[in-house]
Amino acid sequence: MSKLAEYLNRHIVGNVFDRPSICEAYSTDRSILQMMPQAVAIPESVDDVRRLLRFVNQLAVRDLPTAVTVRGTGLDKTGASIGSGLIISTERLNKIEEIDTRGRLVRVQPGITLGELNFALYLQGFCLPIGCDPSTTIGGLIANCPTDSMLNRYGGIYRYVERAEIVLPSGDLIQLAPYRQYAIDAKIASNSAEGILYRKIEHILDEQADTILDRSMRPFDAVGYANITRVREGRTINLLPLMFASQGTLGVITDVILQIEPLPPEPKRLLASFHDLKSAQRFLNYACDLEPYQLDVYDLRILEATAQCGKKSDLFTRKLGKGMLILAGFDYRRFKSAKRLRQCLEALPDNVLRIEETPENTQKFHEISNILISYLNDSRSGERTPVLDDVFVPSVSFGNFLNGLKTLERTLDLELPLYGSFSTSCYTVRPDIDCTTPEGRHKLVDFLKSYSNLVDTCNGSITGNGPEGQVKALMMEKSLGVGERQLYAAIKESFDPNNIMNPHVKLGANPRKIASHLRMKERGGIITP
Questions:
Q1: What is the pLDDT of residue 192?
Q2: 321 conformational bin, left if phi > 0, alpha if psi -120 to 50, beta if neither
Q3: Which one, 4, 294, 301, 439, has least CB within 10 Å?
């Protein structure tokens, strides 16, 4: 690989490294896997990305395949931002190219983080209202299309991407946006890479219309290329939806135009502590109908565990015991938010501890998110690893899901405190499993099987709030029908005929290969939600 790195360094402005110490830094993401890449490329421009992909594609044509994995800040929790071939990091493609406040648009490169973008927009009185980790890149948001905590109120990243520029695996650059049929016909008439791509997608849309229609009946499932159902809408065809939740398997996003929103009013929030789970569920259903921007739930054991580490909120003057903490927030105009908060307070049972946000305790409300980070990084309990985060469980099955978790705790001898968002039906448990030992890895496999079965029993989906990557793909492999597999394989082949882009993610997941890449040591750095 050293000769390849030397060759590529002569042909791009950025850098290509194959030194083991650098490759090791890119060998993990936030998942339970570790894969050492052969080289890491850090392009400085779109031309660099095109040259890298064109070169790797030419190698594949000569039967010398090298897998390409695109990586932002490495926050993926399913193993989709690590690979054993060439890593292309977008960390230098991180510029804000233009802000149009009048048109409420911003043009950015994919490597800029959500936090950096919102800081710049804040100075202009605007924001991108996405409730995700601020360290997540815009490219990563599109590639994973996660269900963020504010999706019910603001619509998520899918709503805000207007158009994008991508580099195909062949090295060709194309623009993705809605096009009328006459524009598509003009593209198809050409012999360019773009024309070939549109011809193939049009054929898929026509030949597999029934499979696509069946797929549209499962909106809460991001497995495969679920957004093929959104490609043809009315009289337009738009390939941009296919990039959402594609996890870098179809191309490299190099430029994005986003819609932005004016800064919302300061939120009004409420904390309520329940010991009776049925009362909690009735309140959650009531509060959800009021359309909050945030309706989060936390197992009280999370607060109890962090209190033992010294991270105790001053909002609670007495021991909370077992049960559930609910955080509801509204960010409408002042009087509307106050009215809805008052409705929530009136709906609470008399015996429920409730704390309303005031100017004096606002900072204490901000501490709740830090309590969660403290819990996930409790060194005395070992590493709380993302195994199957962000599962979808419909609100009608929430009670059954909680009861099933209790059974699972007894069966596997694990504590499984839950946290998540009731408004988006997105939940996470982080089992305290030491994956560095053979016993721990065996228990990890048992948890994967049992937990995915529980979610399925509750009519949920482990890919309902995010795509499968490598880890979740193991659990989803059997659930895909033959027609659906063929549909996704055809889409992949249309964009990437030589299968160089993240080939082990989604359809290419291999149980033995993944088992051999389970991490043998704890991951460094801060573990995030």
A1: 92
A2: left
A3: 439
Cα–Cα dist 123/109, whole Å: 19
pLDDT digits (tens, 9 = 90+) for 12-51: 999 999 999 999 999 999 998 999 999 999 999 999 999 9
d(CA 304, CA 270): 20
Question: What pLDDT sits at residue 163?
Answer: 97
pLDDT at residue 235, rounded to an integer: 87
- SS3 of residue 157 by DSSP: helix
Write down the pLDDT at residue 518: 86
- How far apart, in whole angstroms, are the C-alpha atoms of residue 457 and residue 479? 13
Distance CA 300, CA 319 (A): 10
**Which amino acid does the sequence have at 436?**
T
Q: Please, is 290 exposed, middle or buried when counting C-beta atoms within 10 Å of its C-beta (0-12, 13-18, 19+)?
A: middle
Residue 356: strand pairing partners: 270
Consecutive H or E run containing 325: strand 324-330
CB distance 83 to 69 below 8 Å: yes
Residue ranges in the chain modelled with pLDDT below 50? none
Instruction: Concatenate the DSSP letters of all residues of 43-108 into one string.
Output: -SSHHHHHHHHHHHHHHHHTT----EEEESSS--SSSTT--SSEEEE-TT---EEEEETTTTEEEE
Q: According to the model, what pLDDT value does residue 318 have?
A: 67
Eight-state DSSP code of residue 518: B
The pLDDT value given to residue 385? 79
Largest CA distance in the chain: 73
CA distance 159 to 240: 12
* Count, residues in the chain: 529
Contact (CB, 8 A) for 115 and 73: no
DSSP string, 201-235: HHHHHHHTHHHHHHHTT--S---SSGGGGGSEETT
Do residues 329 and 269 lie in contact, with contact meaning Cβ atoms separated by under 8 Å? yes
Nearest Cα to Cα of residue 387 among 369, 414, 411: 414
Work out whether strand 173-176 and strand 179-180 pair parallel, antiparallel, or are unpaired. unpaired
